[in-house]
Amino acid sequence: MNTHTPRIENGSRRGFLRSTLQAAAGLTLAIYLPGARAAGAAAAASEFEPNAFVRIGTDGTVTVIAKHVEMGQGAYTGLATLVAEELDAAWSQVRVEGAPADARRYNNLAFGSFQGTGGSTAIANSWEQMRKAGASARAMLVSAAAAQWQVPASEISVNEGVLSHGARKATFGELATAAALLPVPADVPLKSPRDFKLIGKQVQRKDSADKVNGRAQFTQDLHLPGMLTAVVAHAPRFGATVKSFDASKARAVKGVVNVVRIPTGVAVIARDTWSAKKGRDALHVVWDESKAFKLGSEEIFAEYRTLAQRPGLVANSTGDAEAALAGSARVLRAAYDFPYLAHAAMEPLNCVVRIGEHECELWYGAQFQSIDQPAVAALLGLPPEKVKINMLYAGGSFGRRASKDADYVLEAVQIAKASASRAPIKMVWLREDDMRAGYYRPAFHHALEASLGADGMPTGWRHRLVGQSILAGTAFAGMMIKDGIDAVSVEGAANLPYGIPAMRVELHTPAANQVPVLWWRSVGSTHTAYSTETFIDELASHAGQDPVAYRLALLGKHPRHAGVLKLAAEKAGWGKPLQAGPDGARRGRGIAVHESFGTFVAQAAEVTVNADGSFSVDRVVCAVDCGMVVNPDVVRAQVEGGVGFALSAALHGAITLKDGAVEQSNFHDYAPIRITEMPRVEVHIVPSAEKPTGIGEPGVPPLAPAVANALAAATGKRLRSLPFRTEELKA
To answer: Which chain positions lie within coiled-coil regions (predicted)?
Structure first.
């Protein structure tokens, strides 16, 4: 290993190095995206463009190149399963590595020409693409065997990485060199679901073993020769800038090698993270707050509530909601407040940068390569192809690493550039940086009104939402903002499935208030599901009707919503009495149903409420319709994780501002749920022949409203804001 080569201990990376050394004898398949040029004859592996999804070495190793980052959601396993299924490979011979930054070849088909992971699209957009990659490889191996054995290709069988014809057998590795000389087939048939051996089965995850034994390579694990570490002193208020700073005490800290000013603050560069932190602590920075944001959470919500009293831009309108509300003797109203939320991934933001004379190389859990690569290139004055991005594992994201403006990646590059050193630099955000200087789920206020007819069913519905736009001013604005409506602000509200004759959804987007906002796991549905599902539950209660039956009566045109609702209710024992709580504690059961990212989820929650208002969530029963399931264990894990993630926010999550400064800093005051707070979770998957849809995020939205509805069933009290306040539930 030369002095410029990083120490990478990831197993899939070692597989890559081995396959590179064996390139002359190995097989690489170029699977082109729609619209790309037709594939020509395959030659030696080194002659193929690097847009392949499959690489087969002479040792029989099958390397699947994943265009989506593995951040705990099971993308590597799912993508590898699609390839291995059509290839008929043995699961044990399959390895996975992250794709380089190259949107021409690794674009997310759901996003057009954009390379990135998000919107729970990893499997959905790769469903046919990765299967075709495997099927093409299989066809070439079969053709190679047929030519060698002088038999019809149709008579050759493939199983567990071995091709057979009578007594003849050959492994993938033995046929790789010959197969590499054959043309890539233009089109290949795919298996019928009835022939699946891996898809739909519970195969072992490809990342689990390395994460357990420590071989998995996260950015925080990466060490390059001569590498330095940097941490940044960020402004305490959004919009503030550095006026002046004194670095004398910081430079005196043992291990500190440099202190540099960058656009986002002052960076301390040291030989290790602890020294860099100590150096930052010793800095004296004077901040210019003349243009800083100085409002607190209460002032923000006061503005939002005022805006909600007047009409906004119309996101959706059917019938005459105003007339229905004005003409009804029974009108219910409710208003909801949702705070800013931090992403709080277990691995805070980090990035390793090495700037060369005419190129730049980065290592990190890359999520939005098509944003990051050109942004870095523009900063350094390089062609984008001279910015190489190595995609490592990411210790969670929940939307934070999908930066709409490459903020933290640019910060890392700015530090490396300002350091005037050729040494590679790892920029590290500590938890406090993530909490106080990051991006947040926008705060929102909702105001709802509904009129009821004589039968208790809704005749009119008006929903006003007030909150910041995530997309305004970004590269996504042209695609996702129409007539002033940010689609992610109203998702889950503008497409409400209930058959209400007159509906009107309006949006107010306040002027930018300098608090940086970003998508947070399940985005707009994090707040729209809560307001709509607790309000519909309240309508059912006011009408004296069963909440499940009430919803089903309104879901006649949405059978998949109705299907998961029925299944969750059945598995939860809906309608059966709950076991009595201890010492007279009140118990309740609630339900919610929501569709996001093409997936339908219903959740039924059981709670126990004590006299002092404290409560526990005892059980959550989930029903999921996400189309055809690639790996049921991954689906269950994602839904279970979604329940825990959503419950953390419902019980504890709130980023609050005072005079413009974020008050929270770490897990002591922005707490995730503890293991004792996690309920029993059951996940029931609806069998489906539909194409796969998203699963990383859809488990989040129904949880909080299901719990709130259970609390209302137990206490009769409706909770209008998150996180829950136990004092509102006192007996």
So the answer is: none
